[in-house]
Amino acid sequence: MDNKTRIAELLREQEKSVLERQINYYDPYPYQIEFHNDTEKFRCLRAANRIGKTHSGGAELSYHATGLYPDWWQGRRFTRPVKAICGGKNNEKTRDIIQAALFGDPTNVNAWGTGWIPKKLIGRAMRKPGVPDAKYHVLVKHVSGGYSKISMLAYDMGKETWMAHKADVNWLDEEPPEDILSQAVRSIIDTGGIIYMTFTPENGTTGVVKMVQDQWSMHEAGWRDVVGDDFIIDTASLHYEFKTKHTRKGKRGHLTKDKITDAIKAMMPHEIKMRAEGIPLLGTGLVFPYSEASITYDAFDLPSHWPRIAGIDFGYTHHTAVVWMVHDPDTDVLYIYDAVKINKREINEIAPFLNARPSLWVPIAWPHDGNKNFGMGGSIQKQYRDYGINLLDDHFTNPPKDNQIEGAGGIQIMPGIVEMANRFNDGRLKVASHLFEWLEEFRNYHHKDNKIVDRDDDLMAATRYAVQSVRFAEKENATPVYKSTNQDSAGWMSA
User: Fold this and answer.
1) Quick check: 338 pLDDT over 50?
2) Are strands 147-154 and 169-173 parallel, antiparallel or unpaired?
3) Local confidence band at 265 (pLDDT 50, 70, 90 cut-offs)
4) Where in the chain is the domain with CATH 3.40.50.300?
5) Exposed, middle or buried, 473 (CB in 10 Å: 0-12/13-18/19+)?
6) What value, to the nearest 5°, has the Cα angle with vertex 38 and ends 35 and 39?
7) Closest by alpha carbon to 308, among 359, 266, 347, 261?
8) Residue range 395-399: average pLDDT?
9) Does the CA dihedral 57-185-72-199 come out positive or negative?
10) Of 326, 247, 180, whose CA–CA distance to 26 is shortest?
């Protein structure tokens, strides 16, 4: 064997050795050390996304199961093998998050033993029936002799399953239902053990969240606790100042300005505090919490070379709404310049009203329910086309992702809401200040119990269709998408 081959082999062996001894390389942040060193029986780490809360939970369980506590450890210790329970929302998440953290990627047979539990200390493992690649119970050798037992449950297995277990250590990853929490607490009462929860409060201030906040030892952590540089994030919806944080061994934090900026772009404004700071959602509030001054503009002459697009929300038992906008391709700003809301009228009343608007030639994005038949005239979209309304060829879909075909983006609401929020946030979506009806809907567009209230939201829906269809915007001299066969030269239906 030549030297290069031998060196390569030694490097592979070293890498394998490191992967199989992850417990030796845990390098906690100050917030994690504080959480671990808390000796209270009931502890909770309420944390933001992407900061290492599950990392913390898995590392701690590995110390208790093996007895291999680090020199900085001042928290509870077990000098004997323990019975440990850990649980997640369902069997799949328990496998893919908790099991992966403790024992390695469950989908890769060669990864067994590359999690927090050293491979050489892993004993027998029992499969979980009906869940591919999932383990139910795993034995782990303790330094005092004998084996600890780690049982991986799931909240959706039901309280009866949890009732059958007693534990020295109970780790709950993410918020459990009240009945599961009750059984988890009972599991440690007779043993005098400990229970800890690591979670992001995505469901708001629920009964479980309020109880642990009031009665448990609470620890909180957010993005500010794990950043690797000094920077400021300043947008219309938030202002954050970040200062560099270091791990115990001096490593700079893992979150950067670019990572945080990208993460915010995928969030609704009302979610940001929860995902960035671990603060529970209030459950009720505005979908777009922006001041009207920050999103409005005074009307001006729109350049004819800027392409235009519109969106329509068909009305049956509610209003029909249409919103028109123009796209400045140089700045990527969308300007809403016209909007109309028509109350509960038949198509033969609505179409002439729309034809009288000055933007008859603008292509209009329409929802998939336009393919439903309505009355004796065929589908809704066909009847509108027969009156000369310039609908796009196919119903609305969100923009496809890279390498996807047109139409693959689906019709889900949230991608459009997030896109609108992002544009409001950085000034790329503006509405003319004289569109009072649109602004009234905007002011009242809200969510309750973490769900958007779909009432009196017709203009908001039409706006979403248009914003997500800007790829189909056309200039004024473009040929209409659809030419009516049932109208006179003025654009009105023939008698």
Assistant:
1) yes
2) unpaired
3) confident
4) 3-222
5) buried
6) 145
7) 359
8) 95
9) positive
10) 247
Give the β-pairing of 451-452 and 446-448.
antiparallel
Place of tokens 């004997």: 80
pLDDT tier, 6 (very low <50, low <70, confident <90, very high otherwise): low
Q: Where in the sequence of the chain do the CATH 3.30.420.280 domains occur?
A: 292-472
Quick one: which of 254, 252, 227 has its CA closest to 240?
A: 227
Structure tokens at 78: 């077990």
Q: Is the pTM of this model over 0.70?
A: no
Q: What is the side-by-side strand order in the sheet with 446-448?
A: 284-286, 446-448, 451-452
Q: What is the pLDDT of residues 456-479, one digit of tens each?
A: 899 999 999 999 999 999 998 655
Which architecture, in CATH terms, is 3-222?
3-Layer(aba) Sandwich (3.40)
d(CA 407, CA 405): 6
Least Cα distance to 357 among 310, 394, 395 occurs for: 310
In this structure, the strands spanning 169-173 and 83-88 are parallel
pLDDT digits (tens, 9 = 90+) for 344-361: 678 888 988 888 888 889
Tokens of 122: 């892993």
Q: Which residues pair with 420 in a beta bridge?
A: none
For the domain covering 292-472, report its CATH number: 3.30.420.280
The answer to whether 353 and 337 have CB atoms below 8 angstroms apart is: no
Residues ≥6 apart with Cβ < 8 Å to 5: none
d(CA 325, CA 328): 10
Structure tokens given for 409: 């983006």
